[in-house]
Design goal:
Chain lengths: 286, 251
């Protein structure tokens, strides 16, 4: 069994180097990013909208606002369509159709984000500009594109959550005279709630981290948005747009932007995990 | 006449499989009727004809008539919502919803359009009282029904049905997930409820049928073999197959 132990040792080294690689990256980002936050002052850095790297002004509030606006927008659009889809596919569609559509939806997740962005620029942006006004490149455009991009994630987790609801709940409800739809809204969604919430949070995590498609359709303007038709710049876009020429403090401020993103996404993922754990542990709802 | 439920020439197919064969049965109001028979003989299938739960099964075909108070319920004109309000069902495994005790008991009323809490409260109380749960649970109406013991859960499921004031209670092996003491108490409850409701119970347990039921139906392979007063079916069966079953010569 010498060979077994050798293979075990090799796998352990591989695993450890992967983990330490991730840990190193994390340490690196924080070491590069945190000092400038302290130097500028956390209040100034997070609460000022004045981003003018050439003058040494580093305030990322408009980017935070931009990221939150498109993420919330994407979540709203993603939730409405994903939940609708998940409900129809699990409850009302013929099983054969559901079985065919679910993998098709999951396939959508494999389309590169630049393609989503491109389609958004070519079709959605002019549509918004002509029908609603404004530059077209906007919170709305980014929300719709991101909403579609996170649809597969939310839909497939929501489908799993709905399918995990015991059939006996449905039977009990129908036997009391409830319609299919009443059963969905009064029992199924309640029973699947924690899974669905986890799905939405994970979707939001994806949306806030998305870069390419957002750069293409959000307009990248450095100001807090006042309407859905205003262009915005997100935290991710800011890093991607400026890293090519940034140096010194400016470069560090981009790392600090990364730290901010890192923390937000970690919080979201922790929340998603906590919600789904609660489901696994105690099934207390309502 | 005067039967609460009557089946006439009832046939049921699951796809090609014939699960009920020409079943003719009359169930009398305000007493307990038991359906017994070996596993797979069609007891649950027959019971689920009475509230048309078989409609949920794909590829099911029903022929014949099922009369509720003399009116055929198999036709397309039947309101399933109303039918299921009149004919409630309690399942084998307690299946309370993952909601609070209150929301479970008031579920049927809310489904049927009653949303005012002030009007739900007295019904929840009386329905819990009807199943002997009120004293135990009156201070815990907001806890999740999933935290109750199996017996409490099954009582809650009965309360949930009683809350919509049905005429008939269908019970499909309601005690099979319970211990003997809880089973005894649920049987007491059934006897008490039989004053007001027509109860049809499916059971594997012949002693249970003998203890609670005024009339008993014995089924075999989708056929109604024998039906009559419980005592007669057990002590003096007319059919050889019934005799073999009640004396334990079948599975
Ligand atoms: N949904 C279904 N599709 C196909 N066949 C079914 C279905 N439900 C039941 N059957 C078949 O119909 C027959 C009667 O089933 P049913 O559940 O009514 O029996 P039962 O007497 O209640 O049995 P048990 O005592 O095991 O609960 C069985 O042979 C069963 O395999
Ligand atoms: Mg059965």
């Amino acid at each position: 069994m010498k060979r077994d132990r050798l293979i075990g040792a090799i796998l352990l080294v591989v695993a450890l180097s992967a983990i330490s690689g991730l840990a190193l990256i994390t340490v690196f980002i924080f070491r590069e990013g945190v000092p400038i936050i302290l130097r500028v002052g956390a209040g100034q850095f997070f609460l000022s909208t004045d981003w003018e790297p050439s003058l040494g002004h580093f305030g990322i509030l408009s980017m935070i606002g931009g990221s939150l606006a498109v993420t919330v927008g994407a979540a709203v659009i993603g939730v409405v369509f994903s939940l609708g889809l998940a409900i129809v596919l699990t409850q009302f569609a013929p099983p054969a159709l559901a079985a065919a559509l679910k993998p098709a939806i999951e396939l959508l997740a494999g389309i590169p984000s630049v393609v989503y962005g491109f389609v958004g620029v070519v079709t959605l942006v002019p549509l918004i500009r002509h029908s609603l006004g404004g530059p077209g490149l906007s919170v709305l455009a980014a929300s719709i594109v991101l909403g579609i991009m996170i649809l597969p994630t939310i839909t497939s987790i929501a489908i799993d959550a709905l399918q995990a609801v015991p059939r006996s709940y449905v039977e009990g409800s129908i036997a009391l005279g409830a319609t299919r739809w009443q059963t969905v809204t009064m029992v199924l969604l309640r029973a699947a709630r924690s899974g669905i919430v986890a799905a939405v949070i994970l979707g939001m995590g994806r949306a806030i981290g998305e870069t390419m498609a957002v750069i293409m359709v959000a307009g990248n303007a450095l100001a807090l948005p006042h309407s859905l038709l205003d262009p915005v710049r997100t935290l991710t876009s800011n890093i991607a747009l400026e890293m090519g020429y940034a140096s010194g403090d400016h470069r560090q401020a981009l790392f600090a932007t990364g730290v901010t993103l890192f923390v937000i996404i970690t919080l979201l993922n922790t929340a998603a995990l906590a919600v789904s754990r609660r489901r696994a542990g105690r099934r207390r709802v309502g | 006449m005067g039967s609460k439920i009557q089946t006439q020439g009832l046939d049921l197919h699951y796809g090609k499989f014939r699960a009920l064969l020409d079943v003719n049965l009359s169930i009398q109001p305000r007493m307990i009727t038991a359906i017994i028979g070996p596993s797979g003989c069609g007891k649950s299938t027959l019971l689920r004809c009475f509230n048309r739960m078989n409609d949920l099964v794909k590829g099911v075909r029903v022929a014949g008539r099922v009369l509720l108070d003399g009116v055929d319920i198999l036709g397309p004109a039947t309101s399933l919502s109303l039918l299921r309000r009149r004919v409630g069902m309690v399942f084998q495994r307690p299946n309370p919803f993952p909601l609070s005790v209150f929301d479970n008991v008031s579920y049927g009323l809310r489904v049927h359009g009653e949303t005012h809490r002030s009007r739900l409260v007295p019904v929840v109380e009386s329905s819990l009282q009807a199943t002997g749960l009120w004293e135990e649970l009156k201070d815990r109406l907001d806890t999740s029904a999933l935290d109750l013991s199996p017996e409490q859960q099954q009582r809650l499921c009965i309360s949930r049905v009683v809350a919509v004031q049905p005429e008939v209670l269908l019970m499909d092996e309601p005690c099979s997930a319970l211990d003997p003491i809880a089973t005894g108490r649920i049987e007491d409850l059934m006897r008490a409820l039989a004053d007001q409701y027509t109860i049809v119970i499916v059971t594997h347990n012949m002693q249970q049928a003998a203890r609670v039921a005024a009339e008993t139906a014995f089924m075999l392979l989708g056929e109604l073999v024998e039906f009559g007063p419980t005592l007669g079916v057990f002590e003096n069966p007319k059919d050889q197959r019934t005799e073999d079953y009640v004396s334990g010569r079948y599975g």
